[in-house]
């Protein structure tokens, strides 16, 4: 099963010999509120919910922690850096996070990690120590080490900033005038070397790309879409986005911002404030729960304004709740953000009205003024969840997760009158289902980073819910794809093929005809997304990549009068591919646009040169600037 610990709740009820009756009774309930309250009463009856939030964690006596840190110092002096780091870790495990002992142990472990060549860990500990009562008289040490680690990691601009702060903190240091003077000279030298390296790098940097603009300007009713598109309904695909004018390859058709987002795992180094999502090698933890990380105090404060201070006491329990941990975290973050924005009464009124309303499928998610905005709660909340197609065991599982999380929130002191519990709980269930379909399974447009090894690899770094991009239906032959910086949280969608007036704009949900047979594509669409695909490759059963025609003939030339021109241009394209370097293709983007437009009009698909050109255009449209430029300056 794709959900972690899926049988956690059902096994307990199976042992009690009541699971079958539970599924029968749950299936009879028609309202989301009644299903949630039924599940809540059931888990309470069978004592399956936590009775307290107390965690069995005892801190050592301060003297023990201090002794451990001193032992680590002795090992460090003996240059046994691995043993020293392990000893400092024991000290940290047994000390309270807001004490000076804890901060000193972090700083000491940072030094040990640096000598072990673990510069990322060294930098992270140095940054943490800065936030945790590290003595001001020693602060210069942390900033110097942070600068050194950043240089070794290639973060030259960041190193310059750390060295600059180090110079300002030297005046607080308790040392002789001579020693301070020597240290200042050494730091100034390092700063100058970094400035020279950074200047050299800036001179070789590529010219920044122009700010993307929606073709035709903003759509009057859907601001994140182009003015050249509209929403329409179709029998087979439901609501979709259609061109009101001819759209050319390279035209920007959508610029969307996530309603809610967060890192996909604890190991991606992504700031967890939903409005940031920046990559950072030295994130700082929330000083209370130590389980959520931010790139700076500003993001930490903004996250608290969005509700982290309410989830902070229960983060440990959310992370241990069955299901998809990051999705559970996002669901709680989403609820608390909107609870604080609207207040409990208004929030419950909106979700209750939504559950009872019979909204026109075409206008679902639009507000009272006829606007579909990605930052609007109801727009995100009303996204397709296929809830009526969810199996009873999965629906019960999501209800159990919502009961578990809300129960922990109430145990933490969060006040919800009994009357509102059903509304809040049912909303959490819907949020989980919306996130599961639109944010987890359909995460193809989420921020990623790339790695260049033997072949280009990409790693998804976040879960993101894009309400406007979710309007685009799937095609196994997409005519739009994401564009721009891969790691950006704001997502730009560009046309990669000509899109004639009246045609539907479709992205891919991660399935393309060249890599999967029709049968496998249909199977994936059904199992993951609960629909049957009606794109042209599926209707006409286009062949996969190895069997796509690669020669022109009377069978695939649509316009015989253009046969000679098309043949000549195809020969030119083949020569272009042979003679050019892939990194130079971006300089010939307009040529590629014109070639694919020529083939689109005159050659029957699928055709290998068309698919090759399409692949090149898609690759050029995206970029990743996550590579680091490495300092080659030795640090003494």
UniProtKB/TrEMBL annotation:
Keywords: Metal-binding, Methyltransferase, S-adenosyl-L-methionine, Transferase, Zinc, Zinc-finger. Residues 227-510 form the SET domain. One of its GO terms (molecular function) is S-adenosylmethionine-dependent methyltransferase activity. GO terms for cellular component: cytoplasm; nucleus. The keyword Methyltransferase applies. The keyword Methyltransferase applies. GO terms for biological process: methylation. Signal peptide: none annotated. SMART domains: SET. This is SET domain-containing protein. The lineage of its organism: Eukaryota, Metazoa, Ecdysozoa, Arthropoda, Hexapoda.
């Amino acid at each position: 099963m794709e959900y972690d610990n899926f049988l956690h709740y059902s096994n307990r009820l199976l042992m009690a010999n009541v699971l079958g009756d539970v599924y029968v009774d749950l299936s009879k309930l028609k309202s989301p509120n009644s299903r949630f309250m039924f599940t809540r009463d059931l888990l309470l009856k069978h004592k399956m919910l936590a009775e307290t939030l107390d965690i069995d964690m005892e801190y050592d006596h301060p003297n023990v922690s201090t002794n451990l840190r001193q032992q680590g110092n002795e090992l460090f002096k003996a240059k046994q850096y691995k043993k020293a780091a392990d000893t400092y870790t024991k000290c940290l495990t047994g000390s309270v996070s807001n004490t000076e002992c804890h901060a000193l142990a972090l700083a000491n472990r940072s030094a040990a990690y640096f000598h072990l060549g673990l510069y990322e860990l060294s930098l992270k500990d140095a940054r943490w120590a800065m936030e945790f009562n590290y003595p001001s008289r020693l602060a210069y040490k942390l900033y110097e080490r942070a600068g050194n680690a950043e240089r070794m990691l290639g973060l030259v601009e960041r190193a310059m900033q750390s060295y600059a702060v180090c110079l300002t903190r030297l005046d607080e240091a308790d040392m002789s005038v001579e020693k301070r003077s020597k240290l200042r000279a050494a730091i100034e030298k390092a700063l100058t070397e970094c400035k020279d390296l950074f200047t050299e790098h800036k001179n070789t940097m590529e010219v920044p790309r122009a700010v993307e603009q929606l073709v035709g300007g903003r759509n009057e009713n859907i601001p994140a879409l182009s003015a050249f598109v509209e929403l329409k309904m179709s029998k087979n695909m439901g609501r979709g986005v259609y061109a009101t004018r001819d759209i050319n390859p390279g035209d920007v058709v959508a610029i969307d911002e996530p309603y809610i987002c967060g890192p996909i795992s604890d190991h991606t180094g992504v700031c967890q404030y939903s409005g940031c999502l920046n990559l950072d090698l030295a994130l700082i933890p929330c000083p209370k729960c130590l389980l959520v990380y931010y790139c700076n105090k500003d993001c930490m404060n903004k996250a608290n304004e969005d509700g982290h201070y309410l989830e902070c006491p229960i983060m440990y329990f959310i992370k241990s709740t069955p299901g998809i941990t990051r999705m559970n975290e996002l669901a709680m973050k989403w609820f608390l953000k909107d609870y604080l924005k609207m207040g409990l009464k208004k929030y419950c009124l909106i979700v209750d009205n939504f559950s009872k309303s019979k909204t026109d499928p075409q206008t679902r998610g639009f507000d009272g003024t006829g606007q579909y905005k990605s930052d609007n709660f109801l727009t995100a909340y009303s996204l397709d969840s296929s809830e009526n197609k969810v199996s009873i065991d999965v629906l019960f599982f999501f209800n159990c997760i919502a009961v578990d999380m809300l129960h922990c929130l109430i145990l933490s002191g969060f006040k919800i009158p009994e009357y509102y519990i059903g509304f809040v709980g049912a909303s959490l269930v819907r949020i989980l289902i919306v996130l599961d379909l639109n944010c987890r399974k359909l995460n193809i447009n989420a921020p990623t980073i790339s790695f260049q090894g033997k072949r280009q690899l990409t790693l998804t770094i976040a879960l993101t819910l894009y309400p406007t991009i979710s309007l685009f239906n799937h095609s196994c032959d997409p005519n739009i794809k994401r564009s721009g910086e891969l790691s950006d949280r704001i997502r730009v969608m560009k046309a990669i093929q000509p899109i004639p007036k009246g045609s539907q704009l479709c992205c891919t949900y991660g399935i393309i005809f060249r890599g999967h047979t029709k049968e496998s594509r249909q199977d994936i669409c059904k199992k993951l997304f609960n629909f049957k695909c009606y794109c042209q490759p599926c209707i006409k059963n286009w062949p996969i990549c190895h069997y796509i025609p690669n020669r022109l003939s009377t069978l695939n030339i649509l316009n015989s009068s253009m046969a000679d021109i098309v043949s000549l241009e195809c020969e030119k394209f083949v020569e272009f591919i042979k003679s050019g370097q892939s990194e130079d293709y971006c300089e010939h983007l307009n040529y590629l646009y014109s070639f694919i437009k020529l083939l689109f009009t005159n050659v029957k698909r699928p055709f290998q040169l068309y698919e090759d050109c399409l692949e090149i255009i898609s690759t050029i449209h995206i970029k990743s600037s996550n590579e680091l430029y490495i300092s080659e300056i030795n640090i003494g």
